[in-house]
Amino acid sequence: MVCETEVEIKNADGLHMRPAMQFVDLASQFECEVKVSNPQLTVDGKSIMQMTMLAATQGTKLRITAKGRDAEQAVAALSDLLEQKLVEKPTSE
């Protein structure tokens, strides 16, 4: 089964290392292939190095695609993580 959705990065600091790691940790719990793409690049959603290559800032639209046994659950959980749970206040400098 293949399932996909588009999400917008809401985190004021974008998809930096900490939220990217949370995404990878969650994606790794599912028995399916997870790909994340922006208009220029598609990466493995279970690889921290590849996820950081997306350089996704606040407002970036990403497509999450999962293929495999629990693809639907993976896409639902990962999109919820990006749209709801990773919303942080901007860091103060």
Number of strands: 4
Computed Rg? 12 Å
Q: Name the CATH class.
A: Alpha Beta
| Low-pLDDT ranges | none
Contiguous helical run count: 3
Percent of residues in beta strands: 25-35%
Whole-number total of structural domains: 1
Structural class comes to alpha+beta
Encode the helix/strand succession as letters. Answer: EHEEHEH
Q: Can you give the mean pLDDT?
A: 91
Report the biggest beta sheet as strand number plus sense, adding barrel if it closes: 4 strands, antiparallel
- Helix share bin: 25-40%
Termini, distance in Å? 45 Å
Looking at CATH, the homologous superfamily is HPr-like
CATH topology: Histidine-containing Protein, Chain: A
Domain HPr: 2-89
InterPro entries: HPr, HPr-like, HPr-like_sf
Protein name: HPr domain-containing protein
Keywords: Cytoplasm, Phosphotransferase system
Question: Would you give an account of this structure?
Answer:
This protein has helices spanning 17-27, 48-53, 71-85; strands at residues 2-8, 32-37, 42-44, 61-68. It is an alpha+beta fold. It has one domain (2-85): Histidine-containing Protein, Chain: A. Strand 2 (32-37) and strand 3 (42-44) form a beta hairpin. The protein is globular and about 35 Å long.
